[in-house]
Amino acid sequence: MSKFPPKPAQIGERTRLVHAGREPSEQHGFVNTPIYRGSTVLYPTTDDILNRRGRYSYGTHGTPTTEALESAWTELTGAAGTVLAPSGLAAVTLALTSCLKAGDHLLVTDSVYRPTRNFCNSFLRKFGVETTYYDPLVGAGIKDLLRPNTTAVLTEAPGSQSFEMQDIPAIADVVHQHGAVVIMDNTWATPLLFPPHERGVDIAIEAGTKYLSGGSDLLLGLVSANERCFKALRATYDAFAMCPGPEDVFLALRGMRTMALRLREHEKQALDMARWLANRPEVAQVLHPALETHPGHDIWKKDFKGSSGLFSIVLKPCSDQALAAMLDGLGLFGMGFSWGGFESLVIPFDCSTYRTATQWKPGGHALRFHIGLEDLDDLKRDLDAGFARLRETDAKAA
Ligand SMILES: *Cc1c(COP(=O)(O)O)cnc(C)c1O
Protein backbone atom coordinates (compact mmCIF):
# COMPACT_ATOMS: atom_id res chain seq x y z
CA MET A 1 0.00 0.00 0.00
CA SER A 2 1.40 3.35 -1.02
CA LYS A 3 2.02 6.19 1.40
CA PHE A 4 0.04 8.47 -0.95
CA PRO A 5 -2.68 8.94 0.16
CA PRO A 6 -2.28 7.94 3.85
CA LYS A 7 -3.74 4.53 4.66
CA PRO A 8 -7.41 4.78 5.59
CA ALA A 9 -8.77 2.00 7.77
CA GLN A 10 -11.28 0.97 5.15
CA ILE A 11 -10.63 1.52 1.48
CA GLY A 12 -12.65 0.26 -1.44
CA GLU A 13 -11.57 -2.41 -3.83
CA ARG A 14 -10.90 -0.06 -6.71
CA THR A 15 -8.73 2.20 -4.54
CA ARG A 16 -6.86 -0.88 -3.37
CA LEU A 17 -6.26 -2.01 -6.96
CA VAL A 18 -4.83 1.40 -7.80
CA HIS A 19 -2.58 1.74 -4.73
CA ALA A 20 -1.55 -1.78 -3.68
CA GLY A 21 2.08 -2.77 -4.24
CA ARG A 22 3.39 0.73 -4.95
CA GLU A 23 5.79 2.95 -2.99
CA PRO A 24 6.53 5.95 -5.24
CA SER A 25 8.73 7.44 -2.49
CA GLU A 26 11.08 4.46 -2.93
CA GLN A 27 11.16 4.91 -6.72
CA HIS A 28 12.21 8.57 -6.88
CA GLY A 29 8.54 9.53 -7.07
CA PHE A 30 7.77 7.49 -10.16
CA VAL A 31 4.27 6.07 -10.00
CA ASN A 32 5.15 2.47 -10.86
CA THR A 33 7.68 0.04 -9.44
CA PRO A 34 10.05 -0.47 -12.39
CA ILE A 35 11.29 -3.74 -13.86
CA TYR A 36 14.19 -4.85 -11.69
CA ARG A 37 16.25 -7.34 -13.66
CA GLY A 38 18.91 -9.19 -11.76
CA SER A 39 20.52 -12.27 -10.31
CA THR A 40 23.31 -10.92 -8.07
CA VAL A 41 22.58 -8.63 -5.14
CA LEU A 42 25.68 -7.04 -3.62
CA TYR A 43 26.32 -6.98 0.13
CA PRO A 44 28.40 -4.06 1.45
CA THR A 45 30.44 -5.98 4.05
CA THR A 46 31.62 -9.49 4.97
CA ASP A 47 29.45 -9.34 8.03
CA ASP A 48 26.39 -8.53 5.89
CA ILE A 49 26.94 -11.41 3.42
CA LEU A 50 27.74 -13.96 6.12
CA ASN A 51 24.55 -13.07 7.95
CA ARG A 52 22.49 -12.59 4.75
CA ARG A 53 21.63 -9.12 6.00
CA GLY A 54 19.58 -6.98 3.62
CA ARG A 55 16.12 -6.76 2.16
CA TYR A 56 17.03 -8.76 -0.98
CA SER A 57 19.48 -11.62 -1.23
CA TYR A 58 19.38 -13.13 -4.72
CA GLY A 59 17.20 -12.81 -7.85
CA THR A 60 15.33 -16.10 -7.36
CA HIS A 61 14.26 -15.05 -3.85
CA GLY A 62 12.54 -11.89 -5.06
CA THR A 63 13.06 -8.37 -6.36
CA PRO A 64 11.20 -5.11 -5.70
CA THR A 65 9.14 -5.91 -8.82
CA THR A 66 8.04 -9.39 -7.73
CA GLU A 67 7.53 -8.19 -4.16
CA ALA A 68 5.22 -5.43 -5.42
CA LEU A 69 2.86 -7.95 -7.04
CA GLU A 70 3.10 -10.40 -4.15
CA SER A 71 2.19 -7.77 -1.57
CA ALA A 72 -0.61 -6.36 -3.74
CA TRP A 73 -2.11 -9.82 -4.21
CA THR A 74 -1.82 -10.56 -0.49
CA GLU A 75 -3.78 -7.38 0.23
CA LEU A 76 -6.35 -8.17 -2.43
CA THR A 77 -6.98 -11.76 -1.33
CA GLY A 78 -6.74 -11.12 2.41
CA ALA A 79 -4.09 -13.85 2.65
CA ALA A 80 -1.04 -14.14 4.92
CA GLY A 81 1.20 -14.17 1.87
CA THR A 82 1.54 -14.80 -1.86
CA VAL A 83 4.09 -16.47 -4.11
CA LEU A 84 4.29 -16.08 -7.89
CA ALA A 85 4.81 -18.73 -10.54
CA PRO A 86 5.67 -18.61 -14.26
CA SER A 87 2.21 -19.89 -15.28
CA GLY A 88 -1.17 -20.76 -13.81
CA LEU A 89 -0.38 -24.45 -14.06
CA ALA A 90 2.93 -23.89 -12.24
CA ALA A 91 0.91 -22.17 -9.50
CA VAL A 92 -1.28 -25.28 -9.21
CA THR A 93 1.79 -27.52 -8.86
CA LEU A 94 3.28 -25.23 -6.20
CA ALA A 95 0.07 -25.24 -4.19
CA LEU A 96 -0.24 -29.04 -4.33
CA THR A 97 3.39 -29.90 -3.61
CA SER A 98 3.47 -27.45 -0.69
CA CYS A 99 1.00 -29.53 1.33
CA LEU A 100 1.44 -33.13 0.08
CA LYS A 101 4.03 -35.83 0.78
CA ALA A 102 4.49 -39.47 -0.19
CA GLY A 103 1.73 -41.64 1.28
CA ASP A 104 -0.87 -38.84 1.29
CA HIS A 105 -4.32 -38.98 -0.29
CA LEU A 106 -5.64 -36.05 -2.35
CA LEU A 107 -9.26 -35.34 -3.33
CA VAL A 108 -9.73 -33.43 -6.59
CA THR A 109 -12.97 -32.22 -8.15
CA ASP A 110 -13.81 -34.08 -11.35
CA SER A 111 -14.45 -30.69 -12.98
CA VAL A 112 -10.86 -29.54 -12.44
CA TYR A 113 -8.76 -27.78 -15.11
CA ARG A 114 -7.58 -30.69 -17.22
CA PRO A 115 -3.78 -30.13 -17.03
CA THR A 116 -4.14 -30.20 -13.20
CA ARG A 117 -5.58 -33.70 -13.56
CA ASN A 118 -2.59 -34.69 -15.71
CA PHE A 119 -0.21 -33.43 -13.01
CA CYS A 120 -1.99 -35.48 -10.33
CA ASN A 121 -2.11 -38.62 -12.47
CA SER A 122 1.52 -38.48 -13.55
CA PHE A 123 3.80 -36.49 -11.26
CA LEU A 124 1.96 -36.87 -7.93
CA ARG A 125 1.35 -40.57 -8.49
CA LYS A 126 5.06 -41.07 -9.23
CA PHE A 127 5.92 -39.45 -5.90
CA GLY A 128 3.51 -41.59 -3.92
CA VAL A 129 0.41 -39.38 -3.65
CA GLU A 130 -2.91 -41.04 -4.50
CA THR A 131 -5.62 -38.89 -6.12
CA THR A 132 -9.35 -39.58 -6.00
CA TYR A 133 -11.70 -37.51 -8.16
CA TYR A 134 -15.05 -36.51 -6.68
CA ASP A 135 -18.37 -35.17 -7.98
CA PRO A 136 -18.11 -31.33 -7.90
CA LEU A 137 -21.67 -31.19 -6.46
CA VAL A 138 -20.66 -33.28 -3.41
CA GLY A 139 -20.93 -30.39 -0.88
CA ALA A 140 -20.72 -31.54 2.75
CA GLY A 141 -20.91 -35.12 1.41
CA ILE A 142 -17.15 -34.84 0.91
CA LYS A 143 -17.05 -36.24 4.49
CA ASP A 144 -17.60 -39.78 3.18
CA LEU A 145 -14.61 -39.53 0.85
CA LEU A 146 -12.06 -38.38 3.44
CA ARG A 147 -9.54 -41.03 4.51
CA PRO A 148 -7.20 -40.91 7.51
CA ASN A 149 -4.37 -39.92 5.14
CA THR A 150 -6.38 -37.31 3.14
CA THR A 151 -4.34 -34.12 3.59
CA ALA A 152 -5.71 -31.87 0.85
CA VAL A 153 -8.90 -31.25 -1.13
CA LEU A 154 -8.68 -29.37 -4.41
CA THR A 155 -11.74 -27.39 -5.49
CA GLU A 156 -12.56 -25.22 -8.49
CA ALA A 157 -15.72 -23.17 -9.01
CA PRO A 158 -17.22 -22.99 -11.47
CA GLY A 159 -15.81 -26.16 -13.00
CA SER A 160 -13.58 -25.97 -16.05
CA GLN A 161 -15.61 -26.12 -19.29
CA SER A 162 -18.81 -27.45 -17.69
CA PHE A 163 -19.43 -24.78 -14.99
CA GLU A 164 -20.61 -26.92 -12.07
CA MET A 165 -20.82 -24.78 -8.91
CA GLN A 166 -19.16 -26.04 -5.74
CA ASP A 167 -20.33 -25.07 -2.26
CA ILE A 168 -16.85 -24.07 -1.05
CA PRO A 169 -17.79 -23.02 2.55
CA ALA A 170 -19.70 -26.30 3.07
CA ILE A 171 -16.78 -28.35 1.78
CA ALA A 172 -14.25 -26.29 3.79
CA ASP A 173 -16.16 -26.87 7.08
CA VAL A 174 -16.02 -30.63 6.73
CA VAL A 175 -12.46 -30.77 5.41
CA HIS A 176 -11.16 -28.55 8.24
CA GLN A 177 -12.83 -30.74 10.87
CA HIS A 178 -10.77 -33.57 9.38
CA GLY A 179 -7.61 -31.46 9.61
CA ALA A 180 -6.98 -31.32 5.86
CA VAL A 181 -6.20 -28.31 3.68
CA VAL A 182 -8.64 -26.72 1.18
CA ILE A 183 -7.11 -25.56 -2.10
CA MET A 184 -9.09 -23.67 -4.71
CA ASP A 185 -8.38 -22.74 -8.31
CA ASN A 186 -10.09 -19.32 -8.26
CA THR A 187 -9.14 -18.22 -11.78
CA TRP A 188 -12.69 -17.73 -13.11
CA ALA A 189 -13.84 -15.33 -10.38
CA THR A 190 -10.55 -13.71 -9.29
CA PRO A 191 -10.46 -12.45 -5.66
CA LEU A 192 -12.69 -9.56 -6.79
CA LEU A 193 -15.70 -11.82 -7.33
CA PHE A 194 -14.88 -14.58 -4.84
CA PRO A 195 -12.78 -13.73 -1.76
CA PRO A 196 -11.24 -17.19 -1.31
CA HIS A 197 -9.78 -17.01 2.19
CA GLU A 198 -12.94 -15.43 3.66
CA ARG A 199 -14.87 -18.42 2.33
CA GLY A 200 -12.67 -21.03 3.99
CA VAL A 201 -9.99 -21.66 1.36
CA ASP A 202 -6.49 -22.20 2.77
CA ILE A 203 -4.55 -21.95 -0.51
CA ALA A 204 -5.95 -20.08 -3.54
CA ILE A 205 -4.62 -20.27 -7.08
CA GLU A 206 -5.00 -17.67 -9.79
CA ALA A 207 -3.86 -17.94 -13.39
CA GLY A 208 -2.66 -14.35 -13.83
CA THR A 209 -2.48 -15.25 -17.51
CA LYS A 210 -6.22 -14.51 -17.67
CA TYR A 211 -7.85 -11.39 -16.18
CA LEU A 212 -4.82 -10.02 -14.33
CA SER A 213 -3.04 -9.71 -17.67
CA GLY A 214 -6.17 -8.91 -19.62
CA GLY A 215 -4.10 -8.77 -22.79
CA SER A 216 -3.35 -12.39 -23.79
CA ASP A 217 0.27 -11.30 -23.71
CA LEU A 218 1.82 -13.08 -20.72
CA LEU A 219 1.86 -16.24 -18.61
CA LEU A 220 1.77 -15.96 -14.82
CA GLY A 221 0.49 -17.75 -11.74
CA LEU A 222 -0.23 -16.57 -8.19
CA VAL A 223 -0.73 -18.62 -5.04
CA SER A 224 -2.03 -16.96 -1.89
CA ALA A 225 -2.22 -18.78 1.43
CA ASN A 226 -3.47 -18.15 4.95
CA GLU A 227 -1.35 -18.22 8.12
CA ARG A 228 -1.66 -22.00 8.38
CA CYS A 229 -0.25 -22.76 4.92
CA PHE A 230 1.97 -19.86 3.87
CA LYS A 231 5.24 -21.00 5.48
CA ALA A 232 5.23 -24.33 3.63
CA LEU A 233 4.17 -22.59 0.42
CA ARG A 234 7.09 -20.13 0.61
CA ALA A 235 9.51 -22.98 1.38
CA THR A 236 8.26 -24.91 -1.67
CA TYR A 237 8.61 -21.82 -3.84
CA ASP A 238 12.21 -21.36 -2.64
CA ALA A 239 12.96 -25.05 -3.22
CA PHE A 240 11.79 -24.97 -6.84
CA ALA A 241 12.97 -21.39 -7.57
CA MET A 242 10.22 -21.40 -10.19
CA CYS A 243 10.17 -17.60 -10.51
CA PRO A 244 8.45 -15.65 -13.29
CA GLY A 245 10.29 -13.17 -15.52
CA PRO A 246 10.30 -9.52 -14.43
CA GLU A 247 8.57 -8.16 -17.57
CA ASP A 248 5.60 -10.49 -17.03
CA VAL A 249 5.31 -9.40 -13.40
CA PHE A 250 5.46 -5.74 -14.41
CA LEU A 251 2.72 -6.26 -17.02
CA ALA A 252 0.59 -8.09 -14.46
CA LEU A 253 0.89 -5.13 -12.08
CA ARG A 254 -0.15 -2.83 -14.91
CA GLY A 255 -3.12 -5.10 -15.69
CA MET A 256 -4.14 -5.17 -12.03
CA ARG A 257 -4.82 -1.42 -11.96
CA THR A 258 -7.69 -1.78 -14.47
CA MET A 259 -8.83 -5.30 -13.61
CA ALA A 260 -12.05 -4.29 -11.80
CA LEU A 261 -13.22 -2.14 -14.71
CA ARG A 262 -12.44 -4.79 -17.31
CA LEU A 263 -14.07 -7.55 -15.29
CA ARG A 264 -17.26 -5.54 -14.89
CA GLU A 265 -17.45 -5.03 -18.65
CA HIS A 266 -16.71 -8.70 -19.39
CA GLU A 267 -19.47 -9.59 -16.91
CA LYS A 268 -22.00 -7.30 -18.52
CA GLN A 269 -21.21 -8.37 -22.06
CA ALA A 270 -21.12 -12.10 -21.21
CA LEU A 271 -24.46 -11.93 -19.37
CA ASP A 272 -26.10 -10.18 -22.30
CA MET A 273 -24.63 -12.71 -24.72
CA ALA A 274 -25.60 -15.67 -22.50
CA ARG A 275 -29.24 -14.48 -22.44
CA TRP A 276 -29.19 -13.91 -26.21
CA LEU A 277 -27.83 -17.44 -26.74
CA ALA A 278 -30.45 -18.92 -24.37
CA ASN A 279 -33.15 -17.60 -26.74
CA ARG A 280 -31.58 -19.06 -29.88
CA PRO A 281 -33.41 -22.06 -31.39
CA GLU A 282 -30.07 -23.84 -32.01
CA VAL A 283 -29.09 -23.76 -28.32
CA ALA A 284 -30.27 -26.42 -25.85
CA GLN A 285 -28.64 -25.07 -22.69
CA VAL A 286 -26.53 -22.18 -21.43
CA LEU A 287 -24.08 -23.03 -18.64
CA HIS A 288 -23.61 -19.68 -16.88
CA PRO A 289 -23.93 -19.66 -13.06
CA ALA A 290 -25.38 -16.12 -12.96
CA LEU A 291 -28.40 -17.23 -15.02
CA GLU A 292 -31.43 -18.22 -12.94
CA THR A 293 -31.72 -21.43 -15.00
CA HIS A 294 -28.27 -22.69 -13.92
CA PRO A 295 -28.45 -25.58 -11.39
CA GLY A 296 -25.71 -23.90 -9.30
CA HIS A 297 -27.27 -20.44 -9.37
CA ASP A 298 -28.14 -20.43 -5.64
CA ILE A 299 -24.56 -21.24 -4.66
CA TRP A 300 -23.31 -18.52 -6.98
CA LYS A 301 -25.70 -16.02 -5.39
CA LYS A 302 -24.71 -17.06 -1.88
CA ASP A 303 -20.91 -16.94 -2.31
CA PHE A 304 -19.95 -14.89 -5.38
CA LYS A 305 -20.03 -11.13 -5.94
CA GLY A 306 -20.38 -11.31 -9.70
CA SER A 307 -19.51 -13.30 -12.80
CA SER A 308 -16.77 -13.03 -15.40
CA GLY A 309 -16.73 -13.34 -19.18
CA LEU A 310 -16.45 -17.13 -19.53
CA PHE A 311 -19.37 -19.55 -19.94
CA SER A 312 -20.44 -22.53 -22.04
CA ILE A 313 -23.42 -23.63 -24.09
CA VAL A 314 -24.77 -26.96 -25.32
CA LEU A 315 -26.14 -27.00 -28.85
CA LYS A 316 -29.18 -28.97 -29.91
CA PRO A 317 -28.04 -32.08 -31.81
CA CYS A 318 -26.30 -31.20 -35.09
CA SER A 319 -23.69 -32.89 -37.29
CA ASP A 320 -19.93 -32.44 -36.86
CA GLN A 321 -19.89 -30.80 -40.31
CA ALA A 322 -22.53 -28.28 -39.29
CA LEU A 323 -20.56 -27.36 -36.18
CA ALA A 324 -17.38 -26.94 -38.24
CA ALA A 325 -19.23 -24.76 -40.76
CA MET A 326 -20.41 -22.54 -37.93
CA LEU A 327 -17.03 -22.21 -36.19
CA ASP A 328 -14.70 -22.12 -39.22
CA GLY A 329 -16.50 -19.13 -40.70
CA LEU A 330 -16.49 -16.94 -37.60
CA GLY A 331 -14.78 -13.61 -38.21
CA LEU A 332 -14.57 -12.05 -34.74
CA PHE A 333 -14.46 -15.07 -32.40
CA GLY A 334 -11.02 -16.67 -32.41
CA MET A 335 -10.58 -20.37 -31.66
CA GLY A 336 -7.86 -21.07 -29.13
CA PHE A 337 -7.09 -22.01 -25.54
CA SER A 338 -6.78 -19.69 -22.59
CA TRP A 339 -9.02 -16.62 -22.11
CA GLY A 340 -9.31 -13.44 -20.05
CA GLY A 341 -7.91 -11.11 -22.69
CA PHE A 342 -9.74 -8.27 -24.43
CA GLU A 343 -10.83 -10.52 -27.30
CA SER A 344 -13.70 -12.95 -27.78
CA LEU A 345 -12.94 -16.65 -28.10
CA VAL A 346 -14.79 -19.91 -28.64
CA ILE A 347 -13.70 -23.54 -28.34
CA PRO A 348 -15.58 -26.80 -28.82
CA PHE A 349 -15.06 -29.22 -25.90
CA ASP A 350 -15.97 -32.71 -24.75
CA CYS A 351 -15.40 -33.67 -21.08
CA SER A 352 -16.66 -37.24 -21.58
CA THR A 353 -13.26 -38.51 -22.72
CA TYR A 354 -11.41 -37.80 -19.47
CA ARG A 355 -13.78 -37.37 -16.51
CA THR A 356 -13.91 -40.35 -14.12
CA ALA A 357 -16.22 -39.54 -11.19
CA THR A 358 -19.09 -38.04 -13.18
CA GLN A 359 -20.63 -38.54 -16.61
CA TRP A 360 -20.69 -35.76 -19.17
CA LYS A 361 -23.63 -36.43 -21.49
CA PRO A 362 -24.92 -33.04 -22.60
CA GLY A 363 -26.85 -34.42 -25.60
CA GLY A 364 -25.21 -32.13 -28.16
CA HIS A 365 -21.97 -30.39 -29.08
CA ALA A 366 -20.64 -28.10 -26.36
CA LEU A 367 -18.93 -24.73 -26.85
CA ARG A 368 -17.09 -22.52 -24.38
CA PHE A 369 -17.18 -18.77 -24.98
CA HIS A 370 -15.06 -15.95 -23.67
CA ILE A 371 -16.82 -12.65 -24.34
CA GLY A 372 -14.35 -9.84 -24.93
CA LEU A 373 -14.64 -6.08 -25.11
CA GLU A 374 -15.82 -5.76 -28.73
CA ASP A 375 -19.17 -4.22 -29.67
CA LEU A 376 -21.79 -6.78 -28.69
CA ASP A 377 -23.87 -6.20 -31.82
CA ASP A 378 -20.89 -7.16 -33.96
CA LEU A 379 -20.33 -10.31 -31.94
CA LYS A 380 -24.00 -11.27 -32.23
CA ARG A 381 -23.95 -10.71 -36.00
CA ASP A 382 -20.88 -12.98 -36.23
CA LEU A 383 -22.65 -15.74 -34.27
CA ASP A 384 -25.95 -15.20 -36.08
CA ALA A 385 -24.21 -15.85 -39.41
CA GLY A 386 -22.51 -18.87 -37.82
CA PHE A 387 -25.84 -20.35 -36.74
CA ALA A 388 -27.16 -19.80 -40.28
CA ARG A 389 -24.20 -21.81 -41.68
CA LEU A 390 -24.89 -24.52 -39.11
CA ARG A 391 -28.57 -24.82 -40.11
CA GLU A 392 -27.83 -24.71 -43.88
CA THR A 393 -25.20 -27.46 -43.60
CA ASP A 394 -27.60 -29.84 -41.87
CA ALA A 395 -30.53 -28.86 -44.12
CA LYS A 396 -28.43 -29.66 -47.22
CA ALA A 397 -27.39 -33.05 -45.82
CA ALA A 398 -30.97 -34.02 -44.90
C1 LIG B 1 -5.78 -21.12 -17.69
C2 LIG B 1 -6.03 -21.81 -16.40
C3 LIG B 1 -4.98 -22.35 -15.66
C4 LIG B 1 -3.56 -22.36 -16.17
O1 LIG B 1 -3.01 -21.14 -16.46
P1 LIG B 1 -1.76 -21.06 -17.47
O2 LIG B 1 -1.12 -19.77 -17.15
O3 LIG B 1 -2.32 -21.16 -18.85
O4 LIG B 1 -0.87 -22.23 -17.14
C5 LIG B 1 -5.27 -22.96 -14.46
N1 LIG B 1 -6.54 -23.04 -14.01
C6 LIG B 1 -7.57 -22.53 -14.69
C7 LIG B 1 -8.95 -22.65 -14.13
C8 LIG B 1 -7.36 -21.92 -15.92
O5 LIG B 1 -8.40 -21.44 -16.60
Automatic annotation (TrEMBL):
One example GO MF annotation: cysteine-S-conjugate beta-lyase activity
The answer to whether keyword Transferase applies is: no
Which GO BP terms apply? L-cysteine catabolic process to pyruvate; transsulfuration
Instruction: State whether keyword Lyase applies.
Output: yes
The record's region (Disordered) falls at 1-30
Q: Identify the Pfam families for this entry.
A: Cys_Met_Meta_PP (PF01053)
- PANTHER family of this UniProt entry? CYSTATHIONINE BETA-LYASE-RELATED
Name of this protein: Cystathionine beta-lyase
The scientific name of the source species is Microvirga aerophila
